[in-house]
Write a structure and sequence with these properties.
By secondary structure, the protein is an alpha+beta fold. Helix content is 32%, strand content 30%. The chain is globular and about 55 Å long. The protein binds cytidine-5'-monophosphate (C5P).
Length: 300
């Protein structure tokens, strides 16, 4: 995330993420699934503005009205409000904030927008309210908010995430990755996709596949990363959404290095060899689909 501070408050650019690979290893006794996933941060941002207020109230306003932004709740159901309240409770303070959120990352898209907004809230309000909560406490709160929130807290460009997704091991990469992304109109609920996952659908896959992708990212043979792209949730997402199936098949016709789905969908992506190819591909695909299409590169 990128933070700028002024005497009026703080602005944060909260990035999206993309799962290069995602292995579901099994269902856990707590109902969550054990994961081994490699995530990269994307230069596609929501913008949050934080201003302290006199009361202990936390308010959230969405700006940039769009059908998407309109359908997102601004009350306690929003992870931004939940993050602010968890901070107030953890630090035992009665300070409030007025928060404005400009939504650009589509929701129910597998791009982690809500989780990134929550991580931005934890980091920004910890600073704005002078709470000085240490990093392990912010991580504890992040894990309570959702499985993807921890990844965004420390602004890693890439990381291998295990456990529920909340245990983060950064992967240093020095060159960006380029993608073309397609988000079909339909979204999918993460919970529904995990429910539809069946262990038998991935026999033969195990974590060494992740070791391959991590070592290729580290050795900067970035193009070879394509061979590690896999998502255990792709089959259940295709089962639940015809739009995911048609989006993946459109991408597979394009002679891209690799094609995949991010998180629990519905965003699908193609790995491109350069920024120019990603932009060219986005222009071409826009003429072939009514879905939202854009080019994005990795970065924080
Ligand atoms: O953690 P988060 O709130 O983002 O997860 C949303 C839902 O996705 C969970 O309620 C759970 O049903 C499912 N999930 C899972 N295993 C994970 C992460 C999420 O089953 N590791």
């Amino acid at each position: 995330m990128r933070i700028t501070t002024s005497h009026h408050g703080m602005n944060v650019q909260a990035p999206a993420k993309l799962n290069l690979s995602l292995l579901v290893l099994g269902k856990r006794p707590d109902g969550f699934h054990e994961l081994d996933t490699v995530m990269v941060s994307l230069q596609l941002y929501d913008t949050l503005r934080f201003v302290s207020c006199q009361s202990d109230q936390v308010s959230l306003q969405m700006v940039g009205a769009s059908a998407e932004a309109d359908s997102i709740p601004t009350d306690d159901r929003n992870l931004v409000i939940q993050a602010a309240k968890r901070l107030q409770h953890s630090a035992n303070v009665a300070i409030g904030a007025d928060i404005t959120l400009t939504k650009r990352i589509p929701s129910q898209a597998g791009l982690g927008g809500g989780s990134s907004d929550a991580a931005a809230t934890l980091v920004a309000l910890n600073q704005l309210w002078n709470l000085n909560l240490p990093s392990p406490e912010l991580h504890r709160l992040a894990a309570q908010l959702g499985s993807d929130v921890n990844f965004f807290l420390d602004s890693h460009v890439a990381a291998r995430c295990t456990g529920r997704g909340e245990e983060i091991a950064p992967i240093p990469i020095s060159q960006p990755l380029y993608f073309v992304l397609i988000k079909p109109p339909a979204g999918l609920s993460t919970g529904r996709v995990f429910q539809a996952w069946k262990s038998k659908s991935q026999s033969g896959l195990h974590t060494p596949l992740q070791d391959v992708i991590v070592s290729r990212l580290q050795s900067n043979s970035l193009f070879q990363v394509s061979q590690g792209i896999h998502n255990s949730l792709e089959a259940p997402a295709v089962e639940l959404s015809e739009e995911v199936r048609t989006t993946l098949s459109l991408l597979k016709q394009q002679n891209l290095a690799a094609v995949g789905m991010s998180g629990s969908g519905t965003t699908c992506f193609g790995l491109c060899s350069s920024w120019n190819e990603a932009k060219r591909m986005a222009t071409k695909l826009r003429s072939q689909t009514k879905s939202r299409v854009w080019a994005a590169k990795s970065g924080i």
